[in-house]
Amino acid sequence: MTNPDSSNDRIDALIEKLTLQEKIDLVHGDHDPAELATGYLPGNDRVGVPSLSLVDGPMGVRAVTATAFPASIALAAAWDSDLAREQGEALGTEVLGADQDVLLAPGFNIIRAPQCGRSFEYYSEDPHLSSRLAVGTIESVQSAGAMATAKHYVANNQEHQRHAVSAEVDERTLREIYLPAFEAAVKEADVASVMASYNRINGTYATEHERLLTDVLKDEWGFDGFVVSDWWATTDAVGAARGGLDLDMPGVPVHEWQENESRIHRAIGALPDAAPKDKLAALAAKPWLPDGANPNLFEGSVFEDPLREAVKGGKVPETALDEKIARTLSQMERFGMFDDEQPEGSVNDPAHETVARRVAERGTVLLQNDGVLPLDEEPASIAVIGPNADKAKIGGGGSSEVDPTDAISPLDGIRERTDGETTVSFERGVERIEDPHDEDEGPFGLPVPDAIDDALSGDDEGPSIDAAARVAESADVAVVVVQDNASESEDRSLWLPNEQDQLVAAVADAAEKTVVVARTAGPVRMPWAGDVDAIVETWYPGQEDGHVTASVLFGDVDPSGRLPVTFARRTDHYPASTEGQYPGIELEAEYSEGVFVGYRHFDAEDIEPLFPFGHGLSYTDFEYDDVTVEAGDGPEATVEVTVENVGDRDGHEVVQAYLGQDDPSVERPPKELAAFESVELAAGESKTVTLEIEERDFAYYDTEESAWTVEDGDYTVSVGRSSRDIVDTDTVSVEDLTVVE
Ligand code: GLC
After folding, report:
1. Ligand 1: which of 72, 231, 232 to mutate, most ligand atoms within 8 Å of CB?
2. Looking at the structure, do residues 235 and 191 belong to the same domain, yes or no?
3. Is residue 501 part of a domain?
4. 364 within ligand 1 shell (Cβ under 6 A)
5. 563 C-alpha vs ligand 1 centroid, how far in Å?
6. CA of 189 to the centre of ligand 1 (A)
7. Are 581 and 158 in contact (CB under 8 A)?
8. What is the mean pLDDT of residues 493-515?
9. Do 485 and 629 have their domain in common?
10. Number of domains making up the chain
């Protein structure tokens, strides 16, 4: 066990006054009387401990009406940690404005398998890009006065059987791919809390993983915050207590949890206490709860009675309880909660709407453009097509859902932007896709089936691809808005749902010009890519969807996003492409691809992606001149590039520097992202960009020495605008083998 900074006499003195039961009450959640928090830790009036409210999520504050920021993958696509800081500041301010203390975000699990249902909530397939965005977000959420939570620790890379699957991953891969962003969150951003994930790692539940929670996180990295469980993820009181879990959440059974979206569980929770609620809830959950999932969804916290018995029985020393409480209370003190010094904050601040729009615009990736975009000569007629084009794609399903005060759809955004000068027609083309933000709830809060909804809206014909093709044919340009519908707790198909592929093909066949706007959680298959004139990826743009779509299509802003994930031509081109790797067999997923995740795999296997990592077009053109690479004293290098905007429009370029060891003694990817810089350039402007490549970027993790090691020899620095569009390379020689401290 490790004690946080014991110089905190004030906290120690408080803990000394606590009875055993009072200590037990400070290591697990309970009901929030305000019915707002996602997780609530009651305080202790007797000794003067305030309560602690924890709230989701990465795209905005849950449970209150709040600003709906774009998906985390959209922020990642902007490749700009300063922008992450801007959004983090706004997010932290909204947390406090909603009278909450801890934001249960950012989530930044590596997008190992693009089918992961929560890809929209994460950043990238690359640990360096994920680290920079995680640090930027955490530092700014916390500078705004709220605590941030680094989640989900660790290797929680799929939703399928997430409560039970074991990530079978070797130490070097953990260190080089899955741990770095968490390490940066602790060492650089001093994150207040880390959330232990549902899954197992090499057979041990994350909530009980002593090596990862105590040896690595607390002892090696010096984490002095608190480890909070994912909700109902704690399975064993002694294992978790001794392993290093500090706070079990939510502490109440699923059928009694006020945030519960399940109507069945809410109904069970409302039954008289004499009813066998836990058994009924378990029965109700049977269809969706995989075998072997943790058992305590339906009972109270294992950190209540079971832990108290374990302490009384000597299985868990009471000093372990003291340390857990000290970690939580010292963070509460750090953020001014004992001295009533928390900033007021504000939720739904109009300034945050501007931030949400800017992040979504900067994260929009122009994947393909034959010149049809931007639509700056406003066309006489536009056909807007798509099953949900009349609805903003605010986010995905699950705990990250946010309820904004308002939102604008692509259709309305385009109508508003053309303000009556252009004829804008609309056809769904295919059945509407049920969306987690559908508020068309009918009586008793039940959704109105689409067929009834369409009949009521007079659309008794129902949507048809033919009708869509007809309006496309008669318009100057057809804009097809397609989307997937990802959600937490289930993985996603890479094929667009509801025959949207057929819809795009039919429109492309009929229309003069076809632009596809894709609103997806991550990579999708695009069999029609060769048949359309332009493809714009807006991910889940949040409440500003329509404004973002219109401003990009009409060139009011330059689409400056770059892909944080690889889009493959075929599903079996992705690295985790066997069943044993993903989703695993008998609750074990073999991470046998090792460090070859994402573009690392595509490069090593020389597979041509549909759109590569780092790819993104602009409405202007950039030229790179005077690329220089200066070697530092040790294994370091400084890259300088002069970038010129040689086009006639302002724009953003993202300069990327990759590093690859020429002749490694271990298998290493051909190149790995080592540094990047987003630079804004007016038409005709040029700037010199400096990128620092640091010692750790040269290193691999030597599991025999348990050390980051830089081998002597030559390393190639590749400078480019994507992982496959390298403008220049140079070589840096490392004289001596170096162990990185
Ligand atoms: C969920 C998620 C986690 C979220 C928590 C509270 O299951 O995995 O990201 O913060 O529970 O909703």
Report:
1. 231
2. yes
3. yes
4. no
5. 26
6. 22
7. no
8. 97
9. no
10. 3
Q: Is the pLDDT of residue 452 over 60?
A: no
For residue 232, how far is its CA from the centre of ligand 1 (angstroms)?
9
Ligand 1 in contact with 162 (CB < 6 A)? no
72 C-beta closer than 6 A to ligand 1: no
Q: Which residues contact 675 (CB under 8 A, 6 or more apart)?
A: 128, 639, 656, 657, 691, 692, 693, 697
Q: Can you tell me the mean pLDDT for 311-329?
A: 97
- Mean pLDDT estimate for the chain: 93
Same domain, 519 and 627: no
Domain boundary among 526, 545, 560: 560
Q: How confident is residue 296, by pLDDT bands cut at 50, 70 and 90?
A: confident
In this structure, the number of other CB atoms found within 10 A of the CB of residue 466 comes to 11
Q: What pLDDT sits at residue 2?
A: 39
User: With a threshold of 0.90, does the pTM exceed it?
Assistant: yes
d(CA 276, CA 585): 34
Say yes or no: CB of residue 62 within 6 Å of ligand 1. no
User: Do 326 and 422 share a domain, yes or no?
Assistant: no
CB 113 within 8 A of CB 571: no
The secondary structure element, H or E, covering residue 242 is: helix 237-243
Crossing angle of helices 81-97/127-143, nearest 10°? Answer: 40
CA neighbor of 487 nearest in space, from 153, 120, 231, 156: 120
By alpha-carbon position, which residue is closest to atom 9 of ligand 1?
399
pLDDT at residue 262, rounded to an integer: 63
My answer on whether 381 and 310 are in the same domain is no
CA distances (Å), 54 to each of 63, 154, 193, 217, 583, in order?
11, 20, 11, 21, 31
Q: CATH number, domain at 631? A: 2.60.40.10
Is the CB of 618 inside a 6 Å radius of any atom of ligand 1? no
In this model, does residue 741 exceed pLDDT 70? Answer: yes
Distance 202 CA to ligand 1 centre (A): 22
Nearest CA owner, ligand 1 atom 4: 399
Are 42 and 190 contained in the same domain? yes
104 close to ligand 1 (CB < 6 Angstrom): yes
Report the CATH number at residue 548: 3.40.50.1700
CATH of the domain at 83: 3.20.20.300
From the CA of 231, give the closest atom in ligand 1: 11
Ramachandran quadrant class, 636 (left: phi over 0; alpha: psi -120 to 50; beta: rest): beta
How is residue 632 written in tokens? 């530092």
The residue whose CA has the least distance to atom 7 of ligand 1 is 231
Is the CB of 400 inside a 6 Å radius of any atom of ligand 1? no
Which entry of 126, 230, 603, 697 is annotated as an active-site residue? 230
Checking if the pLDDT of 270 tops 50, the result is yes
Contact 228 CB / ligand 1 (< 6 Å): no
Can you tell me which atom of ligand 1 is nearest the CA of 162? 8
The atom number, within ligand 1, closest to the CA of 149 reads 10
Q: Which of 119, 399, 489, 490 is the best mutation target for the ligand 1 pocket, counting ligand atoms within 8 Å of the beta carbon and taking the most? A: 399
Please indicate whether residue 149, judged by its CB atom, sits closer than 6 Å to ligand 1: no
Residue numbers of the domain that contains 62: 4-252+300-334
Question: Is the distance from the beta carbon of residue 232 to the nearest atom of ligand 1 less than 6 Å?
Answer: no
User: 242 lies in a domain?
Assistant: yes
Write out the DSSP string of 701-728. Answer: EETTTTEEEE-SEEEEEEEEEETTEEEE
Packing angle, helices 350-362 and 545-553, rounded to 10:
50
| Residue 257 domain flag | no
The residue-averaged pLDDT of 181-189 equals 98
Domain assignment present for residue 286? The answer is no
Taking CA atoms only, the protein residue closest to ligand 1 atom 11 is: 231
Whether 230 sits among the annotated catalytic residues: the reply is: yes
User: Which DSSP category does 439 fall into?
Assistant: -
CB 76 within 8 A of CB 562: no
Looking at the structure, tell me whether residues 166 and 245 fall in a common domain.
yes
Residue 262: exposed, middle, or buried by beta-carbon count in 10 A (0-12, 13-18, 19+)?
middle
| 323 and 431 belong to one structural domain | no
